[in-house]
Design a protein that fits this description.
Elements (H helix, E strand, L loop, with lengths): L16 E6 L5 E6 L1 E6 L2 E5 L5 H9 L3 E4 L5 H9 L8 H5 L5
Antiparallel strand pairs: 1-2, 1-5, 3-4
C-alpha cells in the first residue's frame, strides 16, 4: 500500500542507530536512538532522553560513537533497544557485542 506522508524532514524507514559511550567505570553501554538521521553533509543528529545510562555516559565523558545496525545484527540491536543499561549494566556483553 502506498502512503503519501507529505513534505517532512525525516527519513522513512529510519536506520537503526546504535549509540554507545563509556561510563566513569570504563564499562561501555549502548542503546538504540529512536530518532536520528542525517543533519548535514558531515553531521548526524540523534535525540536521546535524559534517563538513559548511555545519555548520562555521554554527558559525563563528552564522547560517544554511533553505528548503523545491519541485518546481521538485528537480534543484538533489538536487545540493546529493549533492555535498559540502568537495570542490566553488562547488556553489551549479554547482547554478544564487542568493542575496542
Amino acid at each position: 500500500m502506498r502512503k503519501n506522508f507529505g513534505a517532512k524532514t525525516w527519513v522513512y524507514p529510519m536506520p537503526v542507530l546504535i549509540v554507545a559511550a563509556y561510563g566513569k567505570d570504563g564499562v561501555p553501554c549502548c542503546m538504540n536512538a529512536a530518532w536520528g538521521g542525517i543533519y548535514d553533509t558531515d553531521q548526524i543528529m540523534v535525540c536521546l532522553a535524559d534517563d538513559h545510562k548511555t545519555t548520562r555516559n555521554i554527558l559525563e565523558s563528552g564522547a560517544f560513537t554511533v553505528s548503523v545496525a545491519d541485518a546481521k545484527h538485528v537480534v543484538q540491536a533489538d536487545y540493546v533497544g529493549i533492555v535498559s543499561g540502568n537495570r542490566v549494566p553488562d547488556k553489551m556483553v549479554r547482547a554478544g557485542l564487542t568493542w575496542e
